[in-house]
Amino acid sequence: MTADLFDSIAERPAQEAIADGAVILRGFAHAVGSELIPALREIVAQAPFRRMFTPGGYQMSVAMTNCGPVGWVTDRSGYRYDGIDPESGKPWPAMPPSFLRLAREAAAEGGFDDFAPDACLVNRYEPGTKLSLHQDRDETDFAAPIVSVSLGLPAIFLFGGPKRSDKPARHRLTHGDVVVWGGPSRLFFHGVAPLADGEHAVLGRQRINLTFRKAR
Ligand code: SIN
Ligand code: FE2
């Protein structure tokens, strides 16, 4: 963890613009990292990770859960936001104050004031898993940005353009990096390349991503 932090300070600028309206905030979550992990463990105890099915019937390799008023779910009937965890029949765990604060501060740093996310999707990537190029467009209001927090093993984040065929740039994201995109790039295609194997000092053999969105 210390090595990652040192990396981000010594070799990379703290803010990298990757498109119009899109920025990587290197190490932005380090300040609150120690609060995030225990809160994450509590969420997962209440709403365990599960591998959902796409409307086309494929099981996703990335395991997911949610916290906040609504959670993103996919099954044979489609993609949607739902206030109830279909596995438990209960509301999703509440969004911890430390999550909300981080999301709001990162959004503001990225140029989007007053971000009020009502959904936090938690993705778990194990070595070899990936997320295909997609747009985040199940939300009702595209004025709000997306805030994406990387924890654990490093990943290659693919960030393309408005068309699926736009060749994505590859950005390496490490523990504590936060990506914010909105405005002109709110609907840009993005994804995650197959995760390389490794062992992270805090989270072990996995990468966790928190995606904050204003869904409703
Ligand atoms: C997502 O697009 O939902 C997640 C992106 C990431 O894991 O970095
Ligand atoms: Fe996404």
Descriptors:
binds fe (ii) ion; Jelly Rolls; alpha+beta; 4-stranded antiparallel β-sheet; 216 residues; 7-stranded antiparallel β-sheet; 17% helix
3D structure, described in words:
The chain is an alpha+beta fold. It has one domain (3-213): Alpha-ketoglutarate-dependent dioxygenase AlkB-like (Jelly Rolls). It is 17% helix and 31% strand. β4 and β5 (78-82) form a beta hairpin. The radius of gyration is 16 Å and the shape is globular. It starts with a helix and ends with a strand. The model is unreliable at 5-10 (pLDDT under 50). Succinic acid binds at residues 123, 131, 148, 157, 190, 192, 209, 211.
Short description:
The chain is an alpha+beta fold. The chain has 3 helices and 13 strands; from the N terminus they run αββαβββαββββββββ. The longest helix is centred in the N-terminal third of the chain and has 14 residues, at 33-46.
What compounds sit in this structure? succinic acid, fe (ii) ion
**Which bin fits the share of residues in helices?**
10-25%
Total number of helices: 3
> What share of the residues does DSSP label as strand, in percent?
25-35%
